[in-house]
Amino acid sequence: MSIESAKAYMQRMREDPDFRKRVNQCEDPDANWTFLRESGFDFDIDEFKLAQKEVYELHGTDELPKN
Protein backbone atom coordinates (compact mmCIF):
# COMPACT_ATOMS: atom_id res chain seq x y z
CA MET A 1 0.00 0.00 0.00
CA SER A 2 1.21 3.49 -0.63
CA ILE A 3 0.53 7.17 -0.49
CA GLU A 4 1.69 7.40 -4.12
CA SER A 5 -1.09 5.01 -5.13
CA ALA A 6 -3.59 7.22 -3.30
CA LYS A 7 -2.28 10.27 -5.17
CA ALA A 8 -2.58 8.41 -8.47
CA TYR A 9 -6.19 7.57 -7.56
CA MET A 10 -6.91 11.22 -6.79
CA GLN A 11 -5.44 12.23 -10.15
CA ARG A 12 -7.46 9.65 -12.04
CA MET A 13 -10.68 10.67 -10.28
CA ARG A 14 -10.05 14.23 -11.39
CA GLU A 15 -9.11 13.48 -14.98
CA ASP A 16 -11.16 10.41 -15.96
CA PRO A 17 -14.94 10.98 -15.86
CA ASP A 18 -15.75 7.38 -16.81
CA PHE A 19 -13.59 6.03 -14.00
CA ARG A 20 -15.11 8.54 -11.55
CA LYS A 21 -18.61 7.44 -12.59
CA ARG A 22 -17.76 3.78 -12.03
CA VAL A 23 -16.32 4.54 -8.58
CA ASN A 24 -19.42 6.53 -7.64
CA GLN A 25 -21.69 3.71 -8.80
CA CYS A 26 -20.23 1.25 -6.28
CA GLU A 27 -23.02 0.14 -3.97
CA ASP A 28 -21.11 0.28 -0.69
CA PRO A 29 -17.62 0.89 0.72
CA ASP A 30 -16.58 -2.76 0.31
CA ALA A 31 -17.54 -2.70 -3.37
CA ASN A 32 -15.67 0.57 -3.75
CA TRP A 33 -12.46 -0.82 -2.25
CA THR A 34 -12.75 -3.98 -4.34
CA PHE A 35 -13.12 -1.91 -7.51
CA LEU A 36 -10.12 0.24 -6.59
CA ARG A 37 -7.96 -2.84 -5.96
CA GLU A 38 -9.09 -4.37 -9.26
CA SER A 39 -8.17 -1.09 -10.95
CA GLY A 40 -4.60 -1.36 -9.65
CA PHE A 41 -4.73 0.99 -6.67
CA ASP A 42 -3.25 -0.16 -3.38
CA PHE A 43 -3.83 2.17 -0.44
CA ASP A 44 -5.91 2.32 2.71
CA ILE A 45 -7.97 5.14 4.17
CA ASP A 46 -5.11 6.41 6.34
CA GLU A 47 -2.80 6.61 3.31
CA PHE A 48 -5.54 8.41 1.39
CA LYS A 49 -5.84 11.00 4.15
CA LEU A 50 -2.06 11.46 4.21
CA ALA A 51 -2.05 11.87 0.43
CA GLN A 52 -4.77 14.53 0.67
CA LYS A 53 -2.77 16.34 3.35
CA GLU A 54 0.45 16.26 1.30
CA VAL A 55 -1.28 17.52 -1.83
CA TYR A 56 -3.02 20.28 0.15
CA GLU A 57 0.23 21.40 1.77
CA LEU A 58 2.02 21.46 -1.58
CA HIS A 59 -0.70 23.05 -3.73
CA GLY A 60 -3.00 24.82 -1.27
CA THR A 61 -5.86 22.54 -2.34
CA ASP A 62 -6.63 18.84 -2.20
CA GLU A 63 -6.69 18.72 -6.01
CA LEU A 64 -3.57 17.78 -7.91
CA PRO A 65 -2.58 20.16 -10.70
CA LYS A 66 -3.56 19.08 -14.19
CA ASN A 67 -0.74 17.63 -16.25
TrEMBL record:
Record InterPro entries: CHP03798_Ocin, Nif11
Domain Nif11: 1-48
Designated name of the protein: Nif11-like leader peptide family natural product
Originating organism: Fundidesulfovibrio putealis
